[in-house]
Amino acid sequence: MANALGIVSPSVHCFRRRNRAPLGLHGSEKKTAFICLAAADGGVEGRVLDSASSRSYRPRAVGMGSKLVGCGSAVPKLLISNDDLAQIVETSDEWISVRTGIRNRRVLSGNETLGGLAVDAAKGALQMAHVEAEEVDLVIMCTSTPDDLFGCGAQVQRDLGCKNAWAFDITAACSGFVVGLISATRFIKGGGFQNILVVGGDVLSRYVDWTDRGTCILFGDAAGAVLVQACGNDEDGLLGFDLHSDGHGQRQLNAPAKDDDSNFISNNNGTSLFPPKKSSYSCIQMNGKEVFRFAVRCVPQSIEAALEEAGLTSSSIDWLLLHQANQRIIDAVATRLEIPSDKVISNLANYGNTSAASIPLALDEAVRTGKVQAGNTIATAGFGAGLTWGSVIMRWK
Ligand code: ACO
Q1: Which helix or strand (DSSP H or E) is residue 123 part of?
Q2: Which of 117, 230, 274, 361 suits a disulfide with 64, CB 3.0-4.6 Å?
Q3: DSSP secondary structure of 241-284
Q4: What is the DSSP annotation of 194-256?
Q5: What does each C-alpha distance from 41 to 34, 37, 44, 45, 119 come to in angstroms?
Q6: pLDDT > 60? residue 61
Q7: pLDDT of 2 strictly over 50
Q8: Per the residue annotation, which of 174, 244, 347, 350 is the catalytic one?
């Protein structure tokens, strides 16, 4: 993809849906899962997974379509207004709301966690879908800010009681939910999974520099979830998609690992061996202007590619639901796609940029307020750090 601004490399490749898998069944043999666990005496014991552990295999129909049947969301209690921010950095409610459309955001406090928000959001999606936790096959946790370095999908699975599911995390910043949604449809189409929870959640407040007025005004914390369910190909609600990444743009938006290797580990003789890298992450650094230009240029192209795959045009969609980063980006993309403002979903005034949560958070609000109705077609797109970006054309229910 060419980009006159030089942010996106000319060689960047895109990934779209191709090759529908044929209808069929996996083999019916049942595999026995065997794991090693640390025993109480410090040794290692082996045991066969019991019913409380994730199920590794079952006969499955493949080649199915996917539809969205439930959504939910959760936000932290603490609300931080633009006026609150004006007390800690040199800014104003007017500057922030005019330049971004944001007025308030929610920020994690007390004993709130990303996992807790994710569980609450997922419960809402399960309830709306009339699906029990035990019926879920897979939990995909899309986040760049897990409670644990190794991810928190499995803890979300545990806390939801999804005892027949397995779980993993996806890291793709503000594109995370779109990547998770597309991944879910692949597991249904290629692997015969029936019910998949896709949770988008981020708590970027953990990595915000609260003295940097260029970034601290933008971000908020939240989680949103959808339940993606297998259906017949004739009901397939995931109509087209388009995905991209380009690491050349990483310099425009990042929060790199920070190594403190000033202290050496010594051996028993007192000889220095090596400096352990006591690592943490830097705060978010962003070239806002370049990210803005990247989004306004690349997101419409991506949506057009996904629409083309779906055999649709922008005039035939019911809703445009973009990652909620900046109202001016949303407006500019809508204008380029010639989508009228009454078809544009936006709730970032209340929540700011909630990264991987923003799309399911806005979808949940739009569904629960009756804006989005069964059968509506939605063009959605995520974009952000990586750089990563991608679009999905989907039907609600
Ligand atoms: N309050 C008051 N003044 C400010 C503030 C503030 N909060 N922030 C910047 N300014 C000043 C600047 O210092 C500058 O002053 P100067 O002209 O005297 O130098 C002036 O306002 C203009 O600054 P810009 O950075 O050029 O402002 P811009 O109009 O570009 O808006 C913003 C900045 C809101 C960050 C915008 O660029 C933006 O939204 N970019 C996109 C961010 C985004 O979409 N990120 C998505 C991905 S997030 C992820 O993936 C994790």
Answers
A1: helix 114-129
A2: 230
A3: EEEEE-GGGGGGEE--EEEE--S-EE-TTS-EEE---EEEEPPP
A4: -EEEEEEEEEGGGG--TT-TTTTTTB-EEEEEEEEEEE-GGG--EEEEEEEE-GGGGGGEE--
A5: 20, 11, 8, 10, 34
A6: no
A7: no
A8: 174
For the full predicted model, state whether its pTM sits above 0.85.
yes
Is 323 among the catalytic positions?
yes
pLDDT at 191: 86
Please spell the DSSP secondary structure of 133-151, one letter per residue: GGG--EEEEE-SS-SSTT-
For 393, the token pair is: 């054309």
Listed residue (280, 262, 258) closest to 272, CA to CA: 262
Is 142 labeled as catalytic in the residue annotation?
no
Could you tell me whether strands 278-281 and 257-260 are parallel, antiparallel, or unpaired per DSSP bridges? antiparallel
Q: For the chain, first and last CA: distance in Å?
A: 33
Q: Provide the token pair at 76.
A: 């932290």
* Ligand 1 pocket test, candidate residues 292, 298, 353, most atoms within 8 A of CB: 292
Q: For the chain, give the percent of residues with pLDDT over 90.
A: 78
What is the fold, at CATH topology level, of the domain defined by 61-248+286-395? Peroxisomal Thiolase; Chain A, domain 1 (3.40.47)
Read off the tokens for 211. 């003295």
Q: What is the structure's pLDDT at 267?
A: 87
Q: Any idea where the domains of the chain sit in the sequence?
A: 61-248+286-395
Based on DSSP, count helices (H) and strands (E) in the chain, helices before strands: 9, 22
Contacts of 193 (CB under 8 A, 6+ apart): 60, 137, 138, 184, 187, 230
Q: What is the pLDDT of residue 12?
A: 57
Q: What is the mean pLDDT of residues 297-307?
A: 97
Two structure tokens written together for 295: 């989004």
Structure confidence by residue, pLDDT tens digits, 102-128? 999 999 999 999 999 999 999 999 999
- The Cβ-side half-sphere exposure at 370, using a 13 Å CA radius, reads 0
Task: List ligand 1's pocket residues with C-beta within 6 A.
Answer: 91, 95-96, 99-100, 173-174, 213-214, 217, 253, 288-289, 291-292, 295, 325-326, 329, 353, 355, 384-385
Please state the atom number of ligand 1 nearest to the C-alpha of residue 100.
34
